[in-house]
From TrEMBL:
<keyword id="KW-1133">Transmembrane helix</keyword>
<keyword id="KW-0472">Membrane</keyword>
<keyword id="KW-0796">Tight junction</keyword>
<feature type="transmembrane region" description="Helical">
    <location>
        <begin position="111"/>
        <end position="136"/>
    </location>
</feature>
<dbReference type="InterPro" id="IPR006187">
    <property type="entry name" value="Claudin"/>
</dbReference>
<protein>
    <submittedName>
        <fullName>Claudin 23</fullName>
    </submittedName>
</protein>
<keyword id="KW-0965">Cell junction</keyword>
<dbReference type="GO" id="GO:0005198">
    <property type="term" value="F:structural molecule activity"/>
</dbReference>
<dbReference type="InterPro" id="IPR004031">
    <property type="entry name" value="PMP22/EMP/MP20/Claudin"/>
</dbReference>
<feature type="region of interest" description="Disordered">
    <location>
        <begin position="228"/>
        <end position="296"/>
    </location>
</feature>
<keyword id="KW-1003">Cell membrane</keyword>
<dbReference type="InterPro" id="IPR017974">
    <property type="entry name" value="Claudin_CS"/>
</dbReference>
<keyword id="KW-0812">Transmembrane</keyword>
<dbReference type="GO" id="GO:0005886">
    <property type="term" value="C:plasma membrane"/>
</dbReference>
<dbReference type="Pfam" id="PF00822">
    <property type="entry name" value="PMP22_Claudin"/>
</dbReference>
<dbReference type="GO" id="GO:0005923">
    <property type="term" value="C:bicellular tight junction"/>
</dbReference>
<comment type="similarity">
    <text>Belongs to the claudin family.</text>
</comment>
Amino acid sequence: MRTPVVMTLGMVLTPCGLLLNLISTLTPGWRLVKGFLDQPVDVVLYQGLWDMCREQSSRERQCGQPDPWGYWEARPVQAARGLMVTSLAVAALGLLLASLGVRCWRDEPHFALAGLSGLVLFVAGLFSLVPVSWYNHFLGDRDVLPAPDSPVTVQVSYSLVLGYLGSCLLLLGGFSLALSWAPWCEERCRRCRKAAPAGPRRASISTVHVDWPEPALTPAIKYYSDGQHRPPPAAASNSAAGKLKVGFPMPRPPPKAYTNPMDVLDGEGDPAATSQGASSRSTRPCQSSLPCDSDL
């Protein structure tokens, strides 16, 4: 059996989402801080969930920077650490279930297991989307996410974008795999309908025969039989005499007269012609299917 499209789509999107979430969790690029007064103009600071890196003109990159503002103790950072790791673990479990359910080393996929893996992957996408959205909401709030005062500016960095993309891919892939429950539910419903006892069937009426009484004929209607007028028959003798014809006689066409196309008097004026006609009468062809008058 060919693998359904929803399973194939889910198996393509979910590994990509898991990879993007892994990169987003490990890389120190959730927030970009720049514009320090006591630093060169091209110095920027990348802040992540586990590390901070200082970069200058894209040439020098020093990680493991100290945190003088209390960034690590911020609630969005602490929640993002736990939820992102949980999302990675749940997504790995969902991918394992999806690998067993989509093929399961058989000719036909295991639709119920594939649908369960889709639900697990969808939950993993929610676990990663919540911290990413929460962090992005308080990105510029220095009371929630501490940062140096103005003119230092904070911006969204690449890790937060990758977290959004990974979460969306996990949600789409999990939803696509969850659609594998449709054939499984359909098969279960079909089995339940077959196993249910059939109740008594109602008798269906296909044809209804109704004997309507014949209407009484009025005296104004005349009865005719073979074109002759007869008085109305009695009700008692109607069954013995048989059915009578009701209606008016139609005029009959006159009989067609037979006409012979041959001239029967041809040759009777001349005796010679008469004897000659008598000898040739038997050889003259007749143009009609009836006998010729001259032959008679």
